[in-house]
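Onboarding guide, step 5: your first structure request.
Type a short instruction followed by the sequence, for example:

Predict the 3D structure of this protein.
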Amino acid sequence: MTLKNCLHCGLEFAPCPRVPSQSYCSAEPCQRARRRLWQAIKRSNDTDYRDNQARAQKAWNQRHPEYWKRYRDTHPEYTAHNREAQLLRNGYSLVREVVRPDPPASMMKLSSGNYRLTEIKWHGIAKMDVIKVITISHYAKEVAQR
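The system replies with structure tokens like these:
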């Protein structure tokens, strides 16, 4: 019998003889990872499965309306982390998803004033160097929100 390396934990294991294509060991975290991968693939390929999952989640949320409020109350570190992550997401939303290499002249008209230019280290869809331009007053509001 040949040993295989688990795709999740990387440890060697002896696959079940009845399942020659077994790729995950029998440890609970590895089986959980295997099921999550299967569910993600199933959701992306099967619209019926995705709809059933959405209906089941909605029904569960209706049966447990106070769950998330209680969870946030009892897990302040989760709430703080989520708040910080949302601030980052809000900051990234200032950047357009697609940057045009040669914007039309109407987009290039800026009123006179003070601006802060920031180079963006971003690997989205952009063909040239990207520069984010915001007014100083908008920048001050952004900093004050942090």
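Each response can be followed by summary notes, for example: Strands lie at 4-5, 12-13, 115-119, 131-135.
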